[in-house]
Amino acid sequence: MTRRIILDCDPGHDDAIAMLLAHGNPDVELAAVTTVAGNAGIEAVTRNALAVARIAGITGVPFAAGAGRPLVRSVEYAPDIHGDSGLDGPVLPEPTFDVDPRGAVQLIIDTVMASEPGEITLVPTGALTNIALAARIEPRIVPRVREVVLMGGGVHVGNWNATSEFNIVIDPEAAHIVFNESWPLTMVGLDVTHQALATAEVRERIAAVGTRPAVFVGELLDFFGATYLASQGFASPPVHDPVAVAYVIDPSVLEVVKAPLDVELAGTLTLGMTVADLRRPAPRTARPRCRCASTSVASGISWSTRSHRSATPRSEASLPTQGPSHPTQGPSHPTQGLPARSPQLLPQEATPAPPSP
C-alpha cells in the first residue's frame, strides 16, 4: 500500500535528494512538503524546496513555509556544510508555483485531520519545530498520525558537537516535545546515516542515468562532498535524509530496536544529546513522566542480501538512479541494497570518525 507522507525539511543537499526519492518511488505519495529553518533561513530553504520541485516535476503537492526560528533558542544555520543559500553548488531554477498561504504548521494539521487515522506518516528531516507546534496547537493529530520517522540525533555520535546532532540541537525543546508524544516514532540518526555514503561508484551509477534530476544530484554531491571532506573528514559524504525516506518505503533496510528515547535539555556539555536506553533486557517502563514507550531507534543498516520488490517508478525523470542496488562487498560489510528503483546510498567503504566541530 502506498504510504502518504508529509516531508518536513530544510533543503539542504540531502533534503533535496530525499525529496527526489519520495516523489519518484511508487510506494510513497507526497501529501505535502513543509519547510523549517535549519540549514539556512526559512526564505532560503523554502525557495530551495520549490526549486527542487521544479527540477523533479512535482506538481499538485502543497508546499508551505514554516518556523523561521526555534521555539526558545537563537537560530543557528549550517553554512559550512550547505553554503549560505542552504543549497550551494547547482544553479537553481525559478519556482513555478507559490507556497500554500496556510503555512507549514496549519498545513500539517489540516492534512492529518482531513485524512483517515493512520494514513499520514510524518518524515521530518530538519529541526522539529513545525512538528512540535502542530502537536501542541492541535493535539488531536497525535493519535491520527501513523508514525513519525525522523532524521536526527545519534545514540553514540554527534556532528554539531561531541554529543549532539544538528537537527536536534538547534531546537532541543521541539525535539523533546516530539519525542514525548504518544505517536510511534523512529529516530534515524547518525549511527546509521554516517554509513550511507555517496561513494564514487554510487555517483557513477547516478550520472549514468543522464536525466536532469541525475545531473542535479551530481551537482549537489560535488558541493556536499567537498564541504564534508573539509569540515568533517569524510572521503565520501553521508547522505542522511534519504535514509529516513528509504525506511518508510521499506523498513527492512534498517535494523530498529524499541527503546525509551529523550533529549537532554540542561546539560552544559550535552545539550541536544539524544539519550536512548538500550539496556537489555529492556526496561519495563520509561523514566517517570516520559511518554516514550512507543519510540524506536535505528541501530544499524540491514546488510544481508535481500530480494528487491519489482516496482515501476512514478516518473523516471524524477529519479536520480534506477534499478536495484548491487554494491560490492566492502572490507567489513556484506552486500546490501536499498528498495528497488531508489538511489543506492549505502556505504562501500569504512566510515571515518568525524572530528568534533
UniProtKB/TrEMBL annotation:
Keywords: Glycosidase, Hydrolase. Residues 5-288 form the Inosine/uridine-preferring nucleoside hydrolase domain. It holds the Pfam family IU_nuc_hydro. PROSITE patterns: IUNH (PS01247). Residues 312-335 have a biased composition (Polar residues). Residues 301-357 are annotated as: Disordered. CDD domains: nuc_hydro_IU_UC_XIUA. PANTHER family: INOSINE-URIDINE PREFERRING NUCLEOSIDE HYDROLASE (PTHR12304), URIDINE NUCLEOSIDASE (PTHR12304:SF4). This is Ribosylpyrimidine nucleosidase. It comes from Homoserinibacter gongjuensis. The gene is rihB2.
